[in-house]
Amino acid sequence: xxxxxxxxxxxxxxxxxxxxxxxxxxxxxxxxxxxxxxxxxxxxxxxxxxxxxxxxxxxxxxxxxxxxxxxxxxxxxxxxxxxxxxxxx
Amino acid sequence: xxxxxxxxxxxxxxxxxxxxxxxxxxxxxxxxxxxxxxxxxxxxxxxxxxxxxxxxxxxxxxxxxxxxxxxxxxxxxxxxxxxxxxxxxxxxxxxxxxxxxxxxxxxxxxxxxxxxxxxxxxxxxxxxxxxxxxxxxxxxxxxxxxxxxxxxxxxxxxxxxxxxxxxxxxxxxxxxxxxxxxxxxxxxxxxxxxxxxxxxxxxxxxxxxxxxxxxxxxxxxxxxxxxxxxxxxxxxxxxxxxxxxxxxxxxxxxxxxxxxxxxxxxxxxxxxxxxxxxxxxxxxxxxxxxxxxxxxxxxxxxxxxxxxxxxxxxxxxxxxxxxxxxxxxxxxxxxxxxxxxxxxxxxxxxxxxxxxxxxxxxxxxxxxxxxxxxxxxxxxxxxxxxxxxxxxxxxxxxxxxxxxxxxxxxxxxxxxxxxxxxxxxxxxxxxxxxxxxxxxxxxxxxxxxxx
Lengths: 89, 451
Hints:
The radius of gyration of chain A is 12 Å and the shape is globular. The model of chain A has no long low-confidence stretch (mean pLDDT 85). By secondary structure, chain A is mainly α. Chain A has a single domain, classed as Orthogonal Bundle (Non-ribosomal Peptide Synthetase Peptidyl Carrier Protein, Chain A). Chain A contains four helices and no strands. The two termini of chain A are 18 Å apart. Chain B is α/β, with parallel strands linked by helices. Among the domains of chain B are: 5-156, Rossmann fold; 353-450, ANL, C-terminal domain (GMP Synthetase, Chain A, domain 3, 2-Layer Sandwich), CATH 3.30.300. Helix content of chain B is 28%, strand content 30%. In chain B, a hairpin with a 2-residue loop joins strand 18 (298-303) and strand 19. Chain B is globular and about 70 Å long. The N and C termini of chain B lie far apart (53 Å). Chain A binds chain B through residues 13, 16, 38-39, 41-43, 46-47, 50-51, 57-59, 84-89, and chain B through 356-357, 386-389, 392, 404-406, 408-410, 413, 422-423, 427-431. Chain B: Pfam families: AMP-binding, AMP-binding_C.
């Protein structure tokens, strides 16, 4: 399961404009508050799947998870694998 | 008189010279012509008539080359086929409507007849006109291949003009338009075709050294592999004068490395398609990727950024696909080009362009940057379907030292910052141990081919 900081760093590295972990609070809307565009989102979903084994389909329903960081974190924590993958990224 | 008479007469002028060297065995022009006569008699004896579609399996051996000459002279429609390719022979043979097949069998040959008569109108037209034909298949890597029909007489015509006789290495396969071009060009000019024991870089480099090869017709993928394996450092390749490269796009960075590794060698771009034959190209300066395509019997135009060509040596059509020529005879190559004055530069196949939410990504641009990373030995970029953006770039790479894909992706993103636009940076990265090219030394760009 990723730590809170690891998950925040994974989110932050997708952003076109640099931010810090402190900019992400429990109620942060990842898409709107962090100005995450579709490319950043595509990279976020790819990295989540590859690094934590969490597959979030890019549908409207599942993307609602991104409206609050705490909701997103709980979702990832419940599904993350323990060991990192070796091959593809 | 047959369409091949001039070629056979030309070959007789250099009867004592080596036409082929297979492994270490030379075969003179005299022997090749004798074998072609034997084949003519044998084919006649087997009932092979003008207009018959004949499947010819083999590599560049004396027997295969002689059979090819005999078949052309006899007005047959030849389907050259390289052994060792996937087991699709029966299906493709039927597609070509082959009535006879010739297979190497130990020291001899096996002739098989199928009682099949060609029915397709293109084949019947050739047979009716008593003209030899050539059937080639488009690369079968993306579904069913297309069977291309050429009038062999038209293809042969371009070799009548005498050019320099060189010792040439046969890298491209016997059933590839580039391979056929190399063979005919060599034989028509009294050159020697050197056939290596294998097509791995060390085999090719060893053959160049041993037989003092002057001309190497290659592909960018093969040349990239040659640099990667450093085979050029282990063998003496100083006899090389010319290296030609075509069939796919060359990266700037690779060309630069080649120019440094082979000072004094002239690197020349070629342009050809199975549908059009190999066309003459005038490069804009040594080592330039800009060129002019043209020459006698060839016209070009750019429509919507795509290269269209009208050529005297174009195919007659496909056996299993609609006629691709417009009413005026223009063929859309699907190659996207940029233009500067009267020169063009090929940037890639339009179908290979990745569309990231409406923004175009040329795989070549991304690959060029990736290949500048010291940890990456080879890279292929393609489009991966994506529900949000339509497609996103995906890179499949060979690395020089073990590294996890996630870590490599982080390094790639870091390296690409400031060198590529955000939408050009690969969203997915996969590390592969196997080569990223086909056995024909062309990059595998479709996703299924790399999985």
